[in-house]
Specification:
about 110 residues, mainly alpha
Length: about 110
């Protein structure tokens, strides 16, 4: 049973739910980091005339980008979505008790 609880905790920590503002921030950071890694690795590889160095530097840039963008950091979850209430068939918000919903239907 303890193993099941540990697996559930691991699943929750790796799920990585982020909000829409966080998705935009991740996309911008990834784009900037990958372009920077590509330019730096090209310039250094060209200067040293080494394709191995170029690919190695770019690989490090990709790993660094993954380290920054994959975990659900607090900056990526700072703007949670506020959902509208569920509406019934008449367009009224659903109330937690059934009695209130039945009373609104009787009035119509």
């Amino acid at each position: 049973m303890a193993l099941h609880a540990q697996l559930d905790a691991l699943k929750q920590s790796l799920e990585g739910k982020i909000d829409f503002v966080g998705q935009d921030l991740v996309e911008q950071r990834a784009r900037h980091m990958l372009w920077t890694a590509a330019v730096v690795s090209f310039v250094v590889g060209f200067a040293f005339q080494s394709l191995k160095l170029t690919l190695g530097l770019f690989g490090l840039g990709v790993v660094g980008c993954l380290a920054v963008t994959l975990p659900p950091l607090p900056a990526y979850t700072a703007h949670p979505v506020k959902w509208l209430p569920t509406l019934d068939q008449y367009g009224e918000p659903l109330s937690p008790s059934l009695g209130a919903a039945e009373e609104t239907r009787k009035d119509r």
